[in-house]
Amino acid sequence: MKKQIVDGLDFEVREGIGTLTLSRPDRLNSLTFEMYRALVTFFADVEHDDEVKVLIVTGTGRGFCSGGDVHDIIGKLVSYGPKDMLGFARMTGDVIRNMRRLKKPIVAAINGTAAGAGAVIALASDIRIGSDQSKIAFLFSKVGLTGADMGAAYLLPRVIGMGRASELLFLGDSVPAAQAKEIGLFNDVVPHDELMERATAVAKRLAAGPTFSHGITKDLINNGFSMDLDSALDAEARAQTICMLADDFKEFHASFVEKRKPEFKGS
Q1: Domain containing 54: what range?
Q2: What is the pTM of this model?
């Protein structure tokens, strides 16, 4: 059953897949202060929702998310002082922090324009699938800001390399879906009317997999950004030991012996 988290954010769960939908199609799903606050809380709380094994994030209409609403947010921010401005900027960063901390895979189904904060939300997802009608733009520099916002300067070079990331963050140009796939920013691009089918198929595979181990994998990917090789090897050895002691690893062995498909329980 679909429920509204706040105005502009809907959520539903089916067969272990939670779908978070940005639903302000008349504004290209631009974010309000209320939506930002709700997203911070949502990505923290869904960690503890055992019904949800994987998340899909998508939008309605022509937009995935066009960033902060010009009237609701930018129009108000210009009157803020340094303290309140910093508080807002840190809150937006908390959205990305909680997305990366979430020990469940996130699939971004990018149905249209992903710009500004919307581009970083897509970037912070674990897998990005674009509609052939979608595009993405880290356009902060075009509104007089640094291109390094909400973790973009941290995450983007790690996804597409420093040279490409520098170009996108400095110039703020819009990247069409085909090019986004070519440079490794999108994992896949499909015809527009097949987007949710493709995203759901990927999410179903993830939900049927060893979800406890998926969480550890995401932790290691995050932590590996700042590790040297020796530290990474040790961390992976410890993590793999934990997974080999878990029930899902034993279930794989049993299913192999019994010549059947494993039924992972996430434990």
Answers
A1: 3-208
A2: 0.95
